[in-house]
């Protein structure tokens, strides 16, 4: 299924490129296309040049851009972004990832990978590095993939902490008894201030205060059974993963390795076998073929072992993201249920907003309207 | 006679040691036996996870896909098949006949598109994933049964029937009955005291779940086995790593010589790689599957910890003694009695 989506997105990109080329061509043959002006968007108008008569049509319109997020969602995103910029390790990993992301560094890395294929100067270090990454025993940043993985890991930890703290702030805010939970040496608000700063924390608190409180039904018991809650968590996680742009980006990166046309795969096999066989020759043909193979590998994404190491980092990022979304969904749904059980309207409203933030408006409505026996 | 009240005992004679040099006249001969007596308890098992594992085994024994994974694993684990796989890997090292297939396989495994048929690591991952899925399913069904048993309002019987039906579908009628019997046996008769119960807190739940997962991962046998496998790849001494680098670089450089030295060095390099566990790309692909297994297990432990901590709170707050006892038992099985008491205090 993802293969189709991947190819569809590639086709779409190709179509866009074609459309841009066509537009340039049309412009070059004399048709006048007017584009965006400062006051708004003017659709392309075409001046029809005739000898004595000129028809001038102009269609005027405006596009107003809204991101569709609620104030709660916007405040939560700002909170996470503020916490990330304040976190020293996140900033360090981000800078390292940016450093490795430039074209020059990428070329150097590719050449080093290919040279390792030829000279094997890394010995068994790649598999040793993979073992360290799997068990999180050593977190060495050796390239773009590892830096990006560490950056995401720190960011995901912050996101999860802030999700729990935001829900806790809502719980404290709507608590009728006026008590606040003090875990980890302070109230939830104090911890949010510590992580994200006073400005973002106060905005979040204001967004929570402005939430229209939901009125829970009187005497509500558990809303869902154990298996129902598990099903809802699974559905919410799946919906959140579909909407999450980071998961989408990682899947696209993996798709780059996973999906090849049959013909391309066969060509790779044939060329590599031919060059490898020829490189065994005890004449000058041998080194010449090895040099050609070096160039060929460098131009086609590097040797397989470096691709597999990159895939391992991508897998860690994807599973880490899935774990985050699963835990966020579970916390939000559990908070929603507890809100109904304890009659805390702000808690219900905040949990609902969190589920909307994760899964989207329609899915959230469907999930929260599920009752016992309906799943 | 009730099965649970039957006292079973059995004796196993395990080892009779004979000296290898027994054939030689006058040599000393050692005779010995080890007796292991294991009296079966008259009580049903007190450990939640023991019951879960029994139900899981029952459920998996009927699962055709699981059996195919187990069969594939047994078949591919034989020394003959392992030798064939290593030979294929080495031939690929020499001739690159697999092209970009290894990275394609890795990508497909990550995106859960498909698992290859002939691969021990992939079969182990498929088996592990299925075991974890079934375990999660069985635990949630057992907790639902507990919720239904202890729920005294009208929804209780509905939940109980639903859970019983699902457990029967998953693991069979006998397993569902045994599960109900176990849940009744662990629920204490006194009413749940909710006076000291603090209010639900997302913040402390998240922190407690993180702690529980960390402790449970340290106690889990599957994770210990996975760690051991990974240590096979990453626990090398500095000297060994350096020596392999030097040897491989020297042989690779020599193999570029346009004389007979080139092919000879290539053959030597081939032998060195063959003798030291195969090519790096093969090891990395295996490690990718091991990582998938580890992630699957950590995901399961996270879900179970969440369920145990959340439903303990629900059990106490709704005065559901069966649910409270079951979730406490689940948490104790995961993290141990002392840690469980600290987490749900």
Descriptors:
heterodimer, A: 375 residues, mainly alpha, 2 domains, three-stranded antiparallel β-sheet, 15 helices, 70% helix, elongated, B: 345 residues, two-stranded antiparallel sheet, 14 helices, disordered N terminus
Cα separation of the termini of chain B: 40 Å
Taken as a percent bin, the fraction of beta residues of chain A is under 5%
Helix content of chain A: over 70%
What's the pLDDT, averaged over the residues of chain A?
82
E-strand count of chain B: 2
Q: What pattern of helices and strands is seen along the backbone of chain B?
A: EEHHHHHHHHHHHHHH
How far is it from the N-terminal to the C-terminal residue of chain A, by CA?
25 Å
Shape descriptor of chain B? elongated
> Which chains have the largest interface?
A-B, 94 and 93 residues
Structure write-up:
The complex is a heterodimer of chains A (375) and B (345). Chain A has 375 residues and is mainly α. Chain A contains 15 helices and 5 strands. Chain A has 2 domains: 2-61, no CATH class; 71-252 and 311-368, no CATH class. Chain A is elongated. With 345 residues, chain B is an all-alpha fold. Chain B has a domain at 3-37. Helix content of chain B is 70%, strand content 2%. Chain B has 14 helices and 2 strands. A two-stranded antiparallel ribbon of chain B has the order 1-2. Chains A and B meet through helix 5, helix 6, helix 9, helix 10 and helix 11 of A and helix 4, helix 5, helix 6, helix 8 and helix 9 of B.
Indicate the topology.
The complex is a heterodimer of chains A (375) and B (345).
Chain A (H helix, E strand, L loop, with lengths): L1 H27 L7 E2 L2 E3 L5 E2 L4 E2 L4 E2 L9 H16 L1 H14 L1 H17 L5 H11 L8 H31 L13 H9 L1 H12 L16 H18 L1 H14 L3 H18 L5 H15 L4 H39 L2 H15 L1 H8 L7
Antiparallel strand pairs in A: 1-2, 2-5, 3-4
Chain B lengths: L10 E3 L21 E3 L10 H14 L2 H13 L2 H17 L5 H10 L9 H31 L3 H18 L1 H14 L15 H18 L1 H14 L3 H17 L6 H15 L4 H38 L3 H15 L1 H7 L2
Antiparallel strand pairs in B: 1-2
Helix pairs in contact in B: 1-5, 1-7, 2-5, 4-12, 5-6, 5-7, 5-12, 5-13, 6-7, 8-12, 9-12, 10-11, 12-13, 13-14
